[in-house]
Structure formats: C-alpha cells, structure tokens
C-alpha cells in the first residue's frame, strides 16, 4: 500500500470536522488503497504569520519526512492583506522545499454573506501558487461548483464562515482528487451516513464538484 505523509498548518478551517481524517479515509477507500498519515499544527484564528513567528510549524516541517505540507491562511486575510499572506507563504515554501516536501496551498471559500468575493480570494491563492510553483487545492472553486449544481445547498456552518460537515467533506474530496489524481466519485467511507442529512445524493454532488474543480485546475502536482 502506498504511503503518503501530509502535514497540515492552519486553523479551525482545517480542524473543523477533521479534514485530515476525512482525506485519509477517502484514500483508504480508493482502488488501489492509499495509506495517508497526517499531522497538524493548528491554532484557532491563527494566520500563517503567527505560525511562522512562533516557530512550531517550521519545527514540524523539519522534524519529519513529509510528502506534502498544506498551508491554510486565516480566512479573510487573502482579501484584507494578500501581500502579507504571500510574504509568509514564501517563507514557509522555502522551508518546505528545503525539507524535500511539496507545498500545497489550501484555497478556502468566502464567507456566506460575501460570496461575491470568492474570485478575489481564489486569485490570491492562485497568484502566489503560480509564482512559487506550489500546488493549489481549489476548494473554494469546488464550493462554487457544488452550489451552482445544487441551489440551496448549505456548505457553511451556522456562523456563515466555517464549513459544516458537507463543506469539509467537499474539501477532503478536492485534496484526494488533487494529490492522488483520481476521482473521488463512488468512494465509500464512514462519512457518507452523516452526509445524508444534506440530501440522499449529496455525496455524489460533492464528489463530482471536487473532481471537476481539480480537472480544470492548472496548479496540480507535477
């Protein structure tokens, strides 16, 4: 069984509903199955600047052998201060490349009442990804596709910011499709039963949106 080791650096957008665990379960359900081992450096509300300055994230990058290191910025910073976001992504990217791993940028989504800013948020991730040659996980794009496919679908939690279970599952499907270059369509995991509260066929909608977002992305693994 192939083993892939992934370090996640971010905040509650990564931790909510256990995105790393969902990804590992999807990978294990694939044919052939893939073993995903993950670790995380997470602090609620924390930006990459603070992660870098406090040092624990950089130490974790160097402390073990990773295939990928996922960077997730504070949710609104790409809109408020993309220059700062890019500055600290560059610093992390240097450390990640020096360790022998690949940098993956976790493109998140706009808040529910600011959905018209998703294109701006997406470009903040895509532009730095192009500049440093990083992999960009187009989760925000997948959210747009799923919401277009299923009007009325809710992917935000009650705070209109964090993902609900369906939103996290969609993000996990994007990471699976991106990193393993396989469609998540039809994969059976223990998460599907809980997803039924959003509709009987919601897993298929989310899997399809994830695969479509990755197929149209140019920032995929080389």
Q: What labels would you give this structure?
A:
single chain, Rossmann fold
Please name the CATH topology. Answer: Rossmann fold
Structural class: alpha/beta
Strand coverage percent: 5-15%
- The dominant shape is globular
Distance between the termini: 21 Å
Do you know the CATH architecture? 3-Layer(aba) Sandwich
In helices, the fraction of residues equals 40-55%
Number of distinct beta strands:
5
Can you walk through the features of this model?
The chain is α/β, with parallel strands linked by helices and 222 residues long. The chain has a single domain, classed as SGNH hydrolase (Rossmann fold, 3-Layer(aba) Sandwich), CATH 3.40.50.1110. Helix content is 50%, strand content 14%. It has eleven helices and five strands. A five-stranded parallel beta sheet has the order 2-1-3-4-5, sandwiched between helices. The longest helix is centred in the middle third of the chain and has 18 residues. The chain starts with a strand and ends in a 7-residue tail after the last helix. The mean pLDDT is 95.
Q: How would you briefly describe this protein structure?
A:
The protein has helices spanning 12-15, 19-29, 48-54, 56-63, 77-80, 82-99, 118-132, 139-149, 165-180, 192-195, 202-215, and strands spanning 2-10, 34-42, 68-71, 102-106, 135-137.
Secondary-structure topology with pairs:
Elements: E1 2-10, H1 12-15, H2 19-29, E2 34-42, H3 48-54, H4 56-63, E3 68-71, H5 77-80, H6 82-99, E4 102-106, H7 118-132, E5 135-137, H8 139-149, H9 165-180, H10 192-195, H11 202-215
Parallel strand pairs: 1-2, 1-3, 3-4, 4-5
């Amino acid at each position: 069984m192939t083993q892939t080791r992934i370090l996640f650096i971010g905040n509650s957008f990564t931790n909510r509903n256990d995105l790393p665990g969902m990804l590992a379960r999807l990978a294990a359900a694939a044919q052939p199955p893939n073993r995903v081992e993950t670790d995380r450096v997470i602090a609620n509300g924390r930006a990459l600047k603070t992660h870098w300055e406090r040092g624990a994230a950089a130490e974790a990058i160097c402390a073990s052998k990773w295939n990928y290191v996922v960077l997730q910025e504070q949710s609104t910073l790409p809109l408020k201060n993309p220059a700062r976001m890019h500055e600290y992504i560059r610093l992390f990217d240097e450390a990640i490349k020096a360790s022998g791993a690949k940098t993956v940028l976790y493109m998140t989504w706009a808040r529910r009442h600011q959905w018209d800013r998703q294109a701006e948020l997406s470009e903040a991730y895509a532009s730095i990804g192009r500049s440093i040659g990083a992999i960009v996980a187009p989760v925000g794009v997948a959210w747009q596709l799923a919401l277009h496919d299923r009007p009325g679908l809710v992917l935000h939690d009650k705070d209109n910011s964090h993902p609900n279970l369906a939103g996290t599952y969609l993000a996990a499907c994007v990471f699976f499709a991106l990193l393993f270059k396989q469609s998540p369509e039809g994969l059976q995991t223990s998460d599907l039963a809980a997803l039924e509260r959003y509709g009987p066929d919601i897993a298929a909608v989310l899997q399809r949106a994830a695969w479509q977002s990755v197929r149209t992305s140019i920032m995929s693994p080389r």
